[in-house]
Amino acid sequence: MKQQFFCLLLVGLMCSYHSNAQQFGLTGGYLNLTSQNETPTLDTSDSDSGFYVGTFIDLDLTDKIHLQPSLLYGNVNDLNLIYLPVMLKYYLGGTGLNIQAGPQATLLLEDIDDLNNFGVDLSVGAAYDIFSSVFIELRYSFELTDRASDSINYDSSTLRTLSLGIGINI
């Protein structure tokens, strides 16, 4: 229930801010997902690659500070995910380079064993505005929640994501 509420809240915020947004756009690129699982007898780490696509709104809070909520769809090896990052961006000097950090909700669209579908991540990254309407972006997210909190098969399970993409302001 709280996952659906969080998703609806973010979509509602994105829709309500669209009229006031400085920039609205599309983004997509490479996605690497690493799953780290601990069981009573074995610890495993599995990594696979895929893609992500989505939309974002970039809100100017000041000349150097922006807030960027996004709604992203990711696919890695037939695993479908929804990412809902809310990044605080700080532009360095007079350049198009910015550093970013913020929370991210991650929702698995398929049930996997007895793991929780919803997770909360911390994301950090950087981006560079190549042109006024095109940017490249690199982000790393590590999960703060344990997806195995109610599991009988796992002691712990977390996801980490690395994304490299391009964005276009519309």
Q: Give the strand order of the largest sheet, numbering strands 1, 2, ... along the chain.
A: 1-2-3-4-5-6-7-8
Form type: elongated
Mean pLDDT: 88
Radius of gyration of CA atoms, rounded to a whole number: 17 Å
* Helical content band: 10-25%
Number of helices: 1
Major β-sheet, in short? 8 strands, antiparallel, barrel
User: Strand pairing plus helix content: what structural class?
Assistant: mainly beta
- Straight-line distance between termini: 33 Å
DSSP summary, beta strand count: 8
The ordered string of helix (H) and strand (E) elements is HEEEEEEEE
Which percent range describes the beta-strand content? over 45%
Describe what you observe in this structure.
The chain is mainly beta. It is 10% helix and 64% strand. The chain is built from 1 helix and 8 strands; from the N terminus they run H-E-E-E-E-E-E-E-E. Strands 1-2-3-4-5-6-7-8 form an 8-stranded antiparallel β-barrel. The protein is elongated, with a radius of gyration of 17 Å. The two termini are 33 Å apart.
Quickly describe the structure.
By secondary structure, the protein is mainly beta. The protein is built from one helix and eight strands, in the order H-E-E-E-E-E-E-E-E. It has an eight-stranded antiparallel beta barrel.
Structural descriptors:
170 residues, mainly beta, 1 helix, 8 strands, 64% strand, elongated
Q: Any chance you could write out the topology, listing elements then pairs?
A:
Layout: H1 2-18, E1 23-38, E2 43-60, E3 65-76, E4 79-91, E5 97-108, E6 118-131, E7 134-143, E8 156-169
Antiparallel strand pairs: 1-2, 1-8, 2-3, 3-4, 4-5, 5-6, 6-7, 7-8
